[in-house]
Amino acid sequence: AAKRRLDGPQLYDAALDSASAQTLSLLTELRRAVEQNELRLYLQPKVALQGGHGLAAEALVRWQHPQRGLVPPAEFIPFAEQTGFVRQLTLWMFDAAARLLADERTRGMGLRISVNLSTRDLLDPALSVRLGAMLVRHGVQASAFCLEITESAIMDDPQRAEAMLNRLSQQGFKLSIDDFGTGYSSLGYLKRLPVDELKIDKSFVMGMQTDENDATIVRSTIDLAHNLGLTVVAEGVENAAILERLRALACDEAQGYHIARPLPVDAFLAWHAQQT
Ligand code: C2E
Ligand code: CA
Ligand code: CA
Ligand code: CA
């Protein structure tokens, strides 16, 4: 069998040279990561561009590996999606985010947290019940959460996805279409689904200054979102010029390295304290 390769630095040495041994090993390691509490909740601020409302952030996972150090999600999320392990990871992230919202350090902040869902989550009939149980356990409101879903996750099985999104929306969760513009776009589903937000993919935002097509896509997406009554967020904002251009285009919120990198919880709270 062909050797399975991971993007970026290799997690495992050549000693494990069969694909199945590597798969088994990574799965064992991921299970251990959850048991030994090696996963970390990072938060990246999402700021309002047109004034108003409280603080929002996207929850992004990191793996504090005992040998490899801090492992980025690109090195294990695709694998976690293939194996279905991502459902456990999603629950871990949601639990960590809910715990933070119940923490006295965030009280009165009006903090809202966006959590990423995968295709596997969306097709899991137990998802809404599991999330609901965690809300009860931590005593937090569904409306403090936004669930980010990619277009391709929805288009994998649009009927089942629509049923799940309707349930999540009825529970009070806000819903966002992530990486908007990169997927198999069908504008028809946009008006059918109970979506609250569009998130413009960072490839278009990062290209805005140098590529007229990217700038046009960003402008059109902002207009489309507003015409449909949706909030629109730009991700991948890396400099002040792009931030100002987005503000002038009436984009509602921005997220990116220019504002802040994804931060561990303590650093995120310190960042917020410095803003005010
Ligand atoms: P995403 O959901 O599109 O998340 C945004 C990614 O863009 C994050 O990468 C973030 O660090 C990065 N980013 C933010 N601002 C900038 C910027 O100004 N410039 C550039 N170049 N990048 C920026 P990250 O944290 O490495 O996550 C990568 C992907 O891994 C995420 O893309 C998401 O698809 C997945 N992921 C991360 N955490 C989770 C999770 O808890 N659950 C699931 N299912 N997927 C996750
Ligand atoms: Ca996301
Ligand atoms: Ca995204
Ligand atoms: Ca992405």
From TrEMBL:
Does Membrane appear among the keywords?
yes
Where the record annotates domain EAL, the positions are 23-276
**Keywords assigned by UniProt, alphabetized:** Membrane, Transmembrane, Transmembrane helix
The answer on whether this UniProt entry bears the keyword Transmembrane reads: yes
Give a Gene Ontology cellular component term annotated to this protein.
membrane
What organism does the UniProt record list as the source? Answer: Simplicispira metamorpha
Protein name, per record: Diguanylate cyclase/phosphodiesterase
Q: Biological process GO terms, please? A: signal transduction
Question: One GO molecular function term?
Answer: cyclic-guanylate-specific phosphodiesterase activity
